[in-house]
Amino acid sequence: MGIGVSLFLLAVGAVLTFAVHSTVPHTSLDTVGVILMVAGAIGLCISIIIAATRGLASPRTKEHIVERDHHPARGM
């Protein structure tokens, strides 16, 4: 689950919890919204931790490119 999916789950969960006031038989939309928000928050934390450790595990190094001049033999 990426950061985008986690934010999407948080947003959908918040809408279900705070904005939707309809009823569905045998289902509490408030509970579904809270579950989605918790899943999104956990996924966001895990995604950020993975992204942070991936950046530390392979530090970016600067490459030095040296171009050499190839001159024909002088004095011939």
- General shape: rod-shaped
User: Can you give the mean pLDDT?
Assistant: 85
SSE ordering: HH
Distance between the termini: 67 Å
Low-confidence stretches: none
Q: If you compute it from the alpha carbons, what radius of gyration comes out, rounded to the nearest whole angstrom?
A: 27 Å
Structural class: mainly alpha
Structure description:
- The model has no long low-confidence stretch (mean pLDDT 85).
- With 76 residues, the chain is mainly alpha-helical.
- It has one domain.
- 61% of the residues lie in helices and 0% in strands.
- It is rod-shaped, with a radius of gyration of 27 Å.
- The chain has 2 helices and no strands.
- Helix 1 runs antiparallel to helix 2.
Quick description:
By secondary structure, this protein is mainly alpha-helical.
SSE blueprint:
Elements lengths: L2 H17 L9 H29 L19
Entry keywords:
single chain, 76 residues, mainly alpha
